């Protein structure tokens, strides 16, 4: 058995540069306008109140209706997740309604005659981006 020489082509790694003809194996992915926005919202009542998901969604709809009327409250709104112990809710809204929803939540100061406020903790077109909480971990 003879030792293989360093010139053996099967042992050499390819050091060939990519050319224009190799571009068929490469793909460019560009992101356009997002279809939806995800918003992490906290609802705080004075005095504190135990919330349910149905009450939370009704409070959001009433805030939008108060700001933009019946037509404005017809926007599609989904509750992605709900944390009862923290009073937090992750909402999904069409991207073209995001600004309206954020304005309505910011302007809201009561729900069912009880003083409250919506705090928008984070917003992103990517749901995964809401999971990172930089305020907890320094």
UniProtKB/TrEMBL annotation:
Keyword tRNA processing set for record: yes
InterPro entries, sorted: Pop5/Rpp14/Rnp2-like, Rnp2-like_sf
Pfam families, per the entry: RNase_P_Rpp14 (PF01900)
Source superkingdom: Eukaryota
A GO molecular-function descriptor: ribonuclease P RNA binding
GO BP terms, alphabetized: tRNA 5'-leader removal
Annotated Gene Ontology cellular component terms: multimeric ribonuclease P complex; nucleolus
Segments of this protein annotated with the region Disordered: 1-26
Keyword tRNA processing: yes
SUPFAM superfamilies: Rnp2-like
Entry similarity comment: Belongs to the eukaryotic/archaeal RNase P protein component 2 family.
Protein name in the entry: Uncharacterized protein
Organism from which the protein derives: Gonapodya prolifera (strain JEL478)
């Amino acid at each position: 058995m003879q030792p293989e020489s360093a010139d053996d082509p099967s042992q050499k790694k390819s050091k060939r540069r990519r050319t224009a003809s190799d571009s068929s194996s490469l793909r460019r992915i560009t992101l356009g306008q997002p279809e939806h926005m995800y918003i992490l919202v906290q609802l705080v009542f004075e005095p504190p109140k135990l919330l349910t998901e149905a009450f939370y969604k009704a409070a959001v709809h009433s805030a939008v209706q108060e700001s933009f009327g019946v037509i404005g409250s017809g926007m599609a709104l989904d509750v992605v997740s709900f944390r009862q112990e923290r009073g937090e809710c992750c909402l999904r809204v069409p991207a073209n309604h995001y600004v309206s929803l954020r304005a309505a939540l910011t302007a809201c100061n009561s729900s069912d005659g009880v003083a409250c406020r919506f705090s928008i903790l984070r917003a992103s077109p990517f749901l995964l981006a809401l999971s990172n909480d930089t305020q907890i971990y320094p």
